[in-house]
Specification:
The protein folds into two domains: 4-52, Helicase, Ruva Protein, domain 3 (Orthogonal Bundle), CATH 1.10.8.420; 75-168, Dna Topoisomerase Vi A Subunit, Chain: A, domain 2 (3-Layer(aba) Sandwich), CATH 3.40.1360. Helices cover 44% and strands 11% of the residues. It has eight helices and six strands; from the N terminus they run αααββαβαβαβαβα. Strands 4-3-5-6 form a four-stranded parallel sheet. A two-stranded antiparallel ribbon has the order 1-2.
């Protein structure tokens, strides 16, 4: 049996993605065991983040400044805008180091089952940004799911009157992927998106 403080720590940790009750218990134990080197610095970092991190008013990214460092970076290509579902998608794109434009975070995907409609997402601000003559291409980087593709099609329709090229990420075989390990949908998408050598 553990005290209420540790139990609360375990319960809160178990709410994090990828941490179930058992993993949360192990993480809490490690934090308590390494109080000075882990728990105290983590608590301070979390308090700092809670106090300072905000949502960028331009793109929807999280940062301690507004506009965020990406939006404020004049070295980035202002003609390209990448539309992502959420900040995790933005961070994934940034991790690759291959996209040098700017972003628009939708804040979710259209989902009739979950009651998420166009008015719940950042589509209107995206359309307003698309009217900027400096923007020439908008890349829809939504997930290859039913909701992701539905959202991409809806956004593409909304952007049709704007004077921009709307493109989407290619779908298909990942680098290093073997065909016998892929699902039918991925193989079909790869076949449709094939290219000439």
């Amino acid at each position: 049996m553990v005290g209420p403080e540790i139990e609360r720590l375990i319960q809160l940790l178990s709410r994090l993605p990828g941490l179930g009750p058992r993993s949360a218990r192990r993480a809490a134990l490690r934090l308590v065991e390494k109080r000075e080197s882990l728990l105290v610095p983590l608590a301070q970092a979390m308090a700092d983040a809670a106090a300072r991190v905000r949502t960028c008013s331009v793109c929807g990214n999280f940062d301690t400044i507004d506009p965020c460092a990406i939006c404020a970076d004049h070295r980035r290509d202002p003609s390209m805008l990448c539309v992502v579902e959420d900040v995790a998608g933005l961070w994934a794109m940034e991790r690759t180091g291959s996209f040098k434009g700017r972003y628009a975070v939708l804040g979710g995907l259209l989902s009739a089952l979950d009651g998420v409609g166009p008015e719940d997402l950042g589509i209107e601000s995206l359309v307003a940004r698309a009217l900027d003559p400096a923007i020439t291409e908008i890349i829809l980087a939504t997930p290859a799911t039913v909701e992701g593709q539905t959202t991409a099609h809806y956004v593409a329709e909304r952007l049709a009157p704007c004077n921009v090229t709307v493109s989407g990420l290619a779908h298909g075989v990942p680098v290093g992927g073997e065909l016998d390990h892929l699902d039918d949908g991925t193989i079909t998408a790869a076949l449709r998106a094939r290219r000439v050598f």
